[in-house]
Amino acid sequence: MQRARAERRLFVGTYTEDTASEGIYVLAFGEDERRLHVVNAGTHAPNPSYLVRAQSAGSPAGAEAGTETKPGGSATSTLYAAHELADRSCLAAYDVAEDGTLCCRGTCSSPADAGTCFATVHPDGRCLYGANYESGSVGLCLLDANGNPCGGLPSIRHAGSGPNCARQSAPHVHSARFVPGTGLLAVVDLGTDTVTLYRAEATGTLETPPVETVRVPPGSGPRMLAFHPRLPLAALVNELANDVLLYRYDRAGTGWEQTGRLELPVVPGDVRAAHPAFSPDGRRLYVSVRGSDRLTLFGIDRDGAATPLADCPCGGRGPRHFSLSPEGRHLAVANQGSDEVVLFALDPATDEPREEARIAVPQPSCVIWDG
Protein backbone atom coordinates (compact mmCIF):
# COMPACT_ATOMS: atom_id res chain seq x y z
CA MET A 1 0.00 0.00 0.00
CA GLN A 2 1.33 3.44 -0.91
CA ARG A 3 2.09 5.59 2.12
CA ALA A 4 0.30 8.89 2.51
CA ARG A 5 2.44 11.91 1.78
CA ALA A 6 3.57 13.86 4.82
CA GLU A 7 2.01 17.19 5.72
CA ARG A 8 3.77 20.37 4.70
CA ARG A 9 4.07 23.20 7.21
CA LEU A 10 3.57 26.92 6.52
CA PHE A 11 4.03 30.02 8.68
CA VAL A 12 1.73 33.03 8.41
CA GLY A 13 2.47 36.55 9.62
CA THR A 14 -0.47 38.84 10.40
CA TYR A 15 -1.57 42.26 11.58
CA THR A 16 -2.99 42.07 15.10
CA GLU A 17 -4.13 45.64 15.86
CA ASP A 18 -7.93 45.90 15.88
CA THR A 19 -8.24 42.35 14.53
CA ALA A 20 -8.93 38.88 15.91
CA SER A 21 -5.45 37.70 14.95
CA GLU A 22 -3.41 35.78 17.52
CA GLY A 23 -0.05 36.67 15.95
CA ILE A 24 1.96 34.08 14.02
CA TYR A 25 0.01 31.10 12.70
CA VAL A 26 1.52 27.70 11.93
CA LEU A 27 -0.47 25.82 9.28
CA ALA A 28 -0.21 22.31 7.87
CA PHE A 29 -1.17 21.23 4.37
CA GLY A 30 -1.94 17.60 3.61
CA GLU A 31 -1.45 16.95 -0.12
CA ASP A 32 -3.58 13.80 -0.03
CA GLU A 33 -6.45 15.43 1.87
CA ARG A 34 -5.97 18.74 0.01
CA ARG A 35 -6.75 20.77 3.10
CA LEU A 36 -5.14 23.32 5.38
CA HIS A 37 -5.47 23.33 9.16
CA VAL A 38 -4.01 25.34 12.04
CA VAL A 39 -1.23 23.58 13.94
CA ASN A 40 -0.47 26.41 16.32
CA ALA A 41 -1.56 29.99 16.98
CA GLY A 42 -1.29 32.22 19.96
CA THR A 43 2.08 33.97 20.11
CA HIS A 44 0.05 37.17 20.69
CA ALA A 45 3.06 39.19 19.53
CA PRO A 46 1.98 42.51 17.95
CA ASN A 47 1.94 42.85 14.16
CA PRO A 48 4.36 40.11 13.04
CA SER A 49 3.82 41.31 9.46
CA TYR A 50 6.79 39.62 7.77
CA LEU A 51 8.50 36.30 8.45
CA VAL A 52 11.73 34.72 7.28
CA ARG A 53 12.80 31.13 7.89
CA ALA A 54 16.49 30.33 8.26
CA GLN A 55 17.49 27.52 5.90
CA SER A 56 20.52 25.27 5.64
CA ALA A 57 23.37 26.08 3.28
CA GLY A 58 22.85 24.87 -0.26
CA SER A 59 19.50 26.58 -0.84
CA PRO A 60 19.28 28.25 -4.27
CA ALA A 61 20.90 31.67 -4.38
CA GLY A 62 17.72 33.30 -5.63
CA ALA A 63 15.43 31.49 -3.22
CA GLU A 64 11.88 32.72 -2.81
CA ALA A 65 11.36 35.65 -0.51
CA GLY A 66 10.85 34.40 3.00
CA THR A 67 13.77 31.97 2.96
CA GLU A 68 17.38 32.71 3.83
CA THR A 69 20.54 30.63 4.10
CA LYS A 70 22.73 29.79 7.07
CA PRO A 71 25.76 27.54 7.37
CA GLY A 72 25.24 24.00 8.56
CA GLY A 73 24.05 20.68 7.26
CA SER A 74 20.38 20.88 8.20
CA ALA A 75 17.58 23.38 8.50
CA THR A 76 17.70 25.48 11.62
CA SER A 77 14.80 25.77 14.04
CA THR A 78 14.63 29.56 13.86
CA LEU A 79 11.85 31.73 12.52
CA TYR A 80 12.55 35.47 12.33
CA ALA A 81 9.80 38.08 12.41
CA ALA A 82 9.53 41.78 11.64
CA HIS A 83 7.05 43.32 14.08
CA GLU A 84 5.55 46.41 12.46
CA LEU A 85 5.13 48.90 15.31
CA ALA A 86 4.46 52.65 15.21
CA ASP A 87 6.69 53.61 18.15
CA ARG A 88 9.84 51.53 17.57
CA SER A 89 11.58 49.04 15.36
CA CYS A 90 11.37 45.39 16.34
CA LEU A 91 12.96 42.17 15.06
CA ALA A 92 12.48 38.86 16.86
CA ALA A 93 13.70 35.26 16.72
CA TYR A 94 11.40 32.32 17.51
CA ASP A 95 12.26 28.72 18.21
CA VAL A 96 10.01 26.30 16.32
CA ALA A 97 9.27 23.09 18.20
CA GLU A 98 8.35 19.82 16.50
CA ASP A 99 4.69 20.31 17.39
CA GLY A 100 4.66 23.79 15.85
CA THR A 101 4.82 25.69 19.13
CA LEU A 102 6.76 28.95 18.93
CA CYS A 103 8.95 30.34 21.69
CA CYS A 104 10.56 33.78 21.48
CA ARG A 105 14.35 33.53 21.78
CA GLY A 106 15.02 37.26 21.83
CA THR A 107 14.24 40.60 20.27
CA CYS A 108 16.14 43.59 18.92
CA SER A 109 14.36 46.94 19.20
CA SER A 110 15.07 50.66 18.95
CA PRO A 111 12.86 53.72 19.67
CA ALA A 112 14.88 55.64 17.06
CA ASP A 113 13.22 53.65 14.25
CA ALA A 114 9.69 52.46 13.52
CA GLY A 115 7.52 50.38 11.23
CA THR A 116 9.65 47.26 10.64
CA CYS A 117 7.86 45.59 7.72
CA PHE A 118 10.54 43.27 6.28
CA ALA A 119 13.43 41.14 7.55
CA THR A 120 16.37 39.43 5.91
CA VAL A 121 19.36 37.46 7.20
CA HIS A 122 23.00 37.89 6.17
CA PRO A 123 24.06 34.89 4.01
CA ASP A 124 26.36 33.59 6.76
CA GLY A 125 23.82 34.18 9.53
CA ARG A 126 25.80 36.83 11.37
CA CYS A 127 23.21 39.61 11.25
CA LEU A 128 19.49 40.21 10.84
CA TYR A 129 18.37 43.30 8.94
CA GLY A 130 15.01 45.05 9.14
CA ALA A 131 13.35 47.45 6.71
CA ASN A 132 11.78 50.27 8.73
CA TYR A 133 9.02 51.82 6.64
CA GLU A 134 7.96 54.64 8.96
CA SER A 135 11.46 55.89 9.82
CA GLY A 136 12.94 55.25 6.36
CA SER A 137 15.85 53.25 7.74
CA VAL A 138 17.56 49.86 7.80
CA GLY A 139 17.95 48.28 11.23
CA LEU A 140 20.75 45.85 12.09
CA CYS A 141 20.59 43.12 14.74
CA LEU A 142 23.60 40.94 15.55
CA LEU A 143 23.02 37.18 15.85
CA ASP A 144 25.04 34.72 17.89
CA ALA A 145 26.18 31.29 16.69
CA ASN A 146 22.75 29.86 17.51
CA GLY A 147 20.88 32.55 15.58
CA ASN A 148 19.74 34.44 18.68
CA PRO A 149 19.67 38.28 18.76
CA CYS A 150 22.64 39.53 20.78
CA GLY A 151 22.66 43.29 20.27
CA GLY A 152 21.86 46.04 17.81
CA LEU A 153 24.02 48.15 15.52
CA PRO A 154 23.34 51.76 14.45
CA SER A 155 20.69 51.91 11.73
CA ILE A 156 21.23 53.34 8.27
CA ARG A 157 18.82 56.20 7.68
CA HIS A 158 17.71 57.40 4.24
CA ALA A 159 16.85 60.97 3.18
CA GLY A 160 14.79 62.39 0.36
CA SER A 161 11.27 62.18 -1.09
CA GLY A 162 9.34 61.53 -4.28
CA PRO A 163 6.70 63.33 -6.36
CA ASN A 164 3.68 61.53 -4.84
CA CYS A 165 2.90 63.83 -1.92
CA ALA A 166 0.53 61.36 -0.26
CA ARG A 167 2.94 58.40 -0.28
CA GLN A 168 6.42 59.82 -0.89
CA SER A 169 6.81 62.82 1.41
CA ALA A 170 9.67 61.02 3.20
CA PRO A 171 11.82 57.89 2.82
CA HIS A 172 9.96 54.60 3.28
CA VAL A 173 12.26 51.57 3.25
CA HIS A 174 9.98 48.68 2.29
CA SER A 175 12.31 45.70 1.81
CA ALA A 176 15.93 44.56 1.63
CA ARG A 177 17.51 41.46 0.11
CA PHE A 178 21.06 40.30 -0.52
CA VAL A 179 22.15 40.10 -4.14
CA PRO A 180 22.83 36.36 -4.65
CA GLY A 181 26.46 35.34 -4.27
CA THR A 182 27.55 38.72 -2.89
CA GLY A 183 27.70 40.67 0.35
CA LEU A 184 25.59 43.46 -1.13
CA LEU A 185 22.28 44.32 0.51
CA ALA A 186 19.77 45.79 -1.96
CA VAL A 187 17.52 48.19 -0.02
CA VAL A 188 14.23 49.17 -1.69
CA ASP A 189 12.86 52.61 -0.72
CA LEU A 190 9.29 53.37 -1.81
CA GLY A 191 9.55 56.99 -0.68
CA THR A 192 12.67 57.97 -2.63
CA ASP A 193 12.24 55.77 -5.74
CA THR A 194 15.57 54.03 -5.20
CA VAL A 195 17.27 50.66 -4.76
CA THR A 196 20.43 51.27 -2.74
CA LEU A 197 23.26 48.72 -2.63
CA TYR A 198 25.20 48.55 0.65
CA ARG A 199 28.20 46.32 1.28
CA ALA A 200 27.99 44.38 4.56
CA GLU A 201 31.22 44.36 6.57
CA ALA A 202 32.48 41.34 8.53
CA THR A 203 30.79 42.75 11.63
CA GLY A 204 27.44 43.00 9.84
CA THR A 205 27.62 46.81 9.64
CA LEU A 206 26.63 48.32 6.30
CA GLU A 207 29.34 50.44 4.70
CA THR A 208 28.56 54.05 3.79
CA PRO A 209 28.45 55.63 1.33
CA PRO A 210 26.63 52.89 -0.57
CA VAL A 211 28.26 51.03 -3.44
CA GLU A 212 25.54 52.04 -5.90
CA THR A 213 22.14 53.72 -6.02
CA VAL A 214 19.66 52.57 -8.67
CA ARG A 215 17.07 55.24 -9.46
CA VAL A 216 13.67 54.16 -10.77
CA PRO A 217 11.25 56.47 -12.64
CA PRO A 218 9.92 59.20 -10.29
CA GLY A 219 6.67 58.27 -8.59
CA SER A 220 7.10 54.51 -9.18
CA GLY A 221 7.14 53.64 -5.48
CA PRO A 222 9.35 50.51 -5.52
CA ARG A 223 8.21 47.90 -3.01
CA MET A 224 9.66 44.39 -3.38
CA LEU A 225 12.56 42.73 -5.17
CA ALA A 226 13.04 39.16 -6.40
CA PHE A 227 16.23 37.58 -7.73
CA HIS A 228 16.41 34.91 -10.43
CA PRO A 229 17.82 31.58 -9.12
CA ARG A 230 20.52 31.37 -11.84
CA LEU A 231 20.71 34.50 -14.00
CA PRO A 232 22.02 37.91 -12.84
CA LEU A 233 18.46 39.18 -13.09
CA ALA A 234 16.29 41.11 -10.63
CA ALA A 235 12.56 41.85 -10.80
CA LEU A 236 11.48 45.02 -8.99
CA VAL A 237 7.77 45.50 -8.23
CA ASN A 238 6.66 49.14 -8.14
CA GLU A 239 3.59 49.62 -5.96
CA LEU A 240 2.55 53.09 -7.14
CA ALA A 241 3.28 52.58 -10.85
CA ASN A 242 1.78 49.07 -10.72
CA ASP A 243 4.50 47.57 -12.91
CA VAL A 244 7.63 45.42 -12.80
CA LEU A 245 11.09 46.54 -13.88
CA LEU A 246 13.70 43.95 -14.87
CA TYR A 247 17.38 44.64 -14.17
CA ARG A 248 20.65 42.96 -15.14
CA TYR A 249 23.75 43.27 -12.95
CA ASP A 250 27.38 42.15 -13.17
CA ARG A 251 29.22 39.38 -11.31
CA ALA A 252 29.95 41.72 -8.41
CA GLY A 253 26.24 42.51 -8.05
CA THR A 254 26.69 46.08 -9.32
CA GLY A 255 26.16 47.93 -12.59
CA TRP A 256 22.38 47.52 -12.57
CA GLU A 257 20.84 48.16 -15.99
CA GLN A 258 17.12 48.13 -16.75
CA THR A 259 16.31 45.57 -19.46
CA GLY A 260 12.52 45.53 -19.45
CA ARG A 261 9.22 46.79 -18.07
CA LEU A 262 6.23 44.50 -17.46
CA GLU A 263 2.67 45.80 -17.26
CA LEU A 264 0.24 44.39 -14.68
CA PRO A 265 -3.57 44.05 -14.70
CA VAL A 266 -5.58 47.12 -13.75
CA VAL A 267 -9.20 47.81 -12.79
CA PRO A 268 -10.94 51.08 -11.86
CA GLY A 269 -9.90 52.28 -8.42
CA ASP A 270 -6.89 51.61 -6.21
CA VAL A 271 -4.59 49.06 -7.88
CA ARG A 272 -1.24 48.30 -6.24
CA ALA A 273 1.37 45.76 -7.23
CA ALA A 274 2.48 43.81 -4.17
CA HIS A 275 4.91 40.91 -4.43
CA PRO A 276 7.16 39.15 -7.00
CA ALA A 277 8.73 35.67 -6.99
CA PHE A 278 10.62 33.56 -9.52
CA SER A 279 9.85 29.86 -9.68
CA PRO A 280 12.64 27.62 -8.30
CA ASP A 281 13.61 26.56 -11.84
CA GLY A 282 13.69 30.17 -13.04
CA ARG A 283 11.25 29.61 -15.93
CA ARG A 284 8.43 31.69 -14.44
CA LEU A 285 7.89 35.00 -12.67
CA TYR A 286 4.74 35.45 -10.55
CA VAL A 287 3.46 38.86 -9.36
CA SER A 288 0.48 39.63 -7.11
CA VAL A 289 -1.65 42.74 -7.59
CA ARG A 290 -4.04 44.17 -5.02
CA GLY A 291 -7.17 45.95 -6.22
CA SER A 292 -7.46 43.79 -9.31
CA ASP A 293 -6.71 40.86 -6.94
CA ARG A 294 -4.77 38.88 -9.53
CA LEU A 295 -1.74 36.67 -9.89
CA THR A 296 0.11 37.47 -13.10
CA LEU A 297 2.41 34.88 -14.66
CA PHE A 298 5.33 35.62 -16.99
CA GLY A 299 7.56 33.19 -18.82
CA ILE A 300 11.32 33.77 -18.48
CA ASP A 301 13.57 32.48 -21.27
CA ARG A 302 17.20 31.39 -20.96
CA ASP A 303 18.38 34.94 -21.62
CA GLY A 304 16.09 36.50 -19.01
CA ALA A 305 13.48 37.98 -21.36
CA ALA A 306 9.89 37.92 -20.06
CA THR A 307 6.66 37.06 -21.88
CA PRO A 308 3.12 37.42 -20.41
CA LEU A 309 1.52 33.99 -20.00
CA ALA A 310 -1.52 34.17 -17.74
CA ASP A 311 -3.57 36.39 -15.44
CA CYS A 312 -5.49 34.51 -12.73
CA PRO A 313 -7.67 35.36 -9.69
CA CYS A 314 -5.78 35.23 -6.37
CA GLY A 315 -8.66 33.43 -4.61
CA GLY A 316 -9.60 36.38 -2.42
CA ARG A 317 -8.93 40.09 -1.88
CA GLY A 318 -5.71 41.95 -1.25
CA PRO A 319 -2.91 39.44 -2.11
CA ARG A 320 -0.25 41.17 -0.04
CA HIS A 321 2.26 38.32 -0.19
CA PHE A 322 2.66 34.83 -1.59
CA SER A 323 5.33 32.15 -1.78
CA LEU A 324 6.08 29.10 -3.88
CA SER A 325 6.88 25.75 -2.28
CA PRO A 326 10.59 24.81 -2.53
CA GLU A 327 9.97 22.23 -5.26
CA GLY A 328 7.69 24.64 -7.15
CA ARG A 329 4.50 22.57 -7.16
CA HIS A 330 2.35 24.82 -4.95
CA LEU A 331 1.79 28.52 -4.31
CA ALA A 332 0.32 29.97 -1.11
CA VAL A 333 -1.27 33.44 -1.03
CA ALA A 334 -1.86 35.73 1.97
CA ASN A 335 -5.11 37.49 1.01
CA GLN A 336 -5.14 40.24 3.61
CA GLY A 337 -8.35 41.87 2.39
CA SER A 338 -10.48 38.73 2.72
CA ASP A 339 -8.82 37.27 5.86
CA GLU A 340 -7.68 33.99 4.36
CA VAL A 341 -4.73 32.00 3.11
CA VAL A 342 -5.38 30.26 -0.21
CA LEU A 343 -3.20 27.45 -1.51
CA PHE A 344 -2.90 26.65 -5.21
CA ALA A 345 -1.44 23.68 -7.07
CA LEU A 346 0.52 24.70 -10.16
CA ASP A 347 -0.39 22.98 -13.40
CA PRO A 348 2.56 20.75 -14.45
CA ALA A 349 2.22 21.84 -18.09
CA THR A 350 1.38 25.55 -17.84
CA ASP A 351 2.38 26.49 -14.25
CA GLU A 352 -0.98 28.25 -13.86
CA PRO A 353 -2.49 28.13 -10.34
CA ARG A 354 -5.45 25.89 -9.51
CA GLU A 355 -7.05 26.25 -6.07
CA GLU A 356 -6.42 23.34 -3.71
CA ALA A 357 -7.32 24.61 -0.25
CA ARG A 358 -8.13 27.69 1.81
CA ILE A 359 -8.33 28.61 5.47
CA ALA A 360 -9.50 31.65 7.44
CA VAL A 361 -6.67 33.66 9.04
CA PRO A 362 -7.30 37.22 10.28
CA GLN A 363 -5.34 39.87 8.34
CA PRO A 364 -2.61 37.63 6.85
CA SER A 365 0.32 39.69 5.56
CA CYS A 366 2.94 37.03 4.79
CA VAL A 367 3.02 33.28 4.18
CA ILE A 368 6.16 31.14 3.86
CA TRP A 369 6.95 27.43 3.58
CA ASP A 370 8.92 25.50 6.18
CA GLY A 371 11.73 24.19 4.01
Write the layout of secondary structure elements.
Elements lengths: L7 E7 L10 E6 L4 E6 L7 E9 L10 E4 L7 E6 L5 E8 L5 E9 L5 E6 L5 E6 L4 E7 L5 E9 L15 E6 L5 E6 L4 E6 L12 E4 L6 E6 L5 E6 L4 E6 L8 E7 L8 E7 L5 E7 L3 E7 L5 E8 L5 E6 L5 E6 L4 E7 L6 E8 L3 E6 L2
Parallel strand pairs: 4-5
Antiparallel strand pairs: 1-2, 1-29, 2-3, 4-6, 6-7, 7-8, 9-10, 10-11, 11-12, 13-14, 14-15, 15-16, 17-18, 18-19, 19-20, 21-22, 22-23, 23-24, 25-26, 26-27, 27-28
Considering the chains and any ligands shown, give keywords for the structure.
globular; 0% helix; 371 residues; 29 strands; 52% strand; single chain; five-stranded mixed sheet; mainly beta; four-stranded antiparallel sheet
| Major sheet details | 5 strands, mixed
Order of helices and strands: EEEEEEEEEEEEEEEEEEEEEEEEEEEEE
Strand order of the largest sheet: 5-4-6-7-8
Oligomer: single chain
Mean pLDDT: 92
* Shape annotation: globular
Q: Can you put this structure into words, describing what you see?
A:
With 371 residues, the protein is mostly beta strands. The chain is built from no helices and 29 strands. The chain has a five-stranded mixed sheet, with no helix packed on it. A hairpin with a 5-residue loop joins strand 23 (294-300) and strand 24 (306-313).
Provide a brief overview of the structure.
The protein has no helices and 29 strands. It is mainly beta and 371 residues long.
